[in-house]
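Data availability (excerpt). The following record was deposited with the supplementary files.
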Amino acid sequence: MKIRYLKEPSLQEDYVEVHYCKENDAVEVIRNFFLSFQSIIGKKDGCVQKLLPGSIYYLEVVDRKLFAYQEKEVWQIDGSLRYFLDCYEESGFVQIGKSMAVNLYRVSRVKADLNMRLRLLMDNGEVLVLNRSYKKTFTEALQRLQEVCHENN
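Predicted structure:
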């Protein structure tokens, strides 16, 4: 896949075009990457802020409320974990427990743990535990991501 960057100072607005001869995993990853720039509304301390899905490290449901964890901040977002995953699963989010989902692009390392669980070391240093009943779904999503990365190299 060829990539070209063209700087055009006369443009009024930045834009990206993706040209492809057939739909494949690499094109889908690119599409999902750009979808991750759609914003989500986060609330905290009476403030409202737009969040980009790619800036979210993981999500957790606590007391029936959904929270999005960024590198250093935590925001409450509307909706359910299932709804979020339905909307953003293709952007790298995968469920790792009954009340938790993780952004695969923010996982720096995966280590084996007791009872067939996995420990996920996040880019911000936090450690999450992958429940073993979600292990197959997680490893399949990780494998798909890895295959697409190898295709592009």
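Summary of structural features: The longest strand covers residues 107-112.
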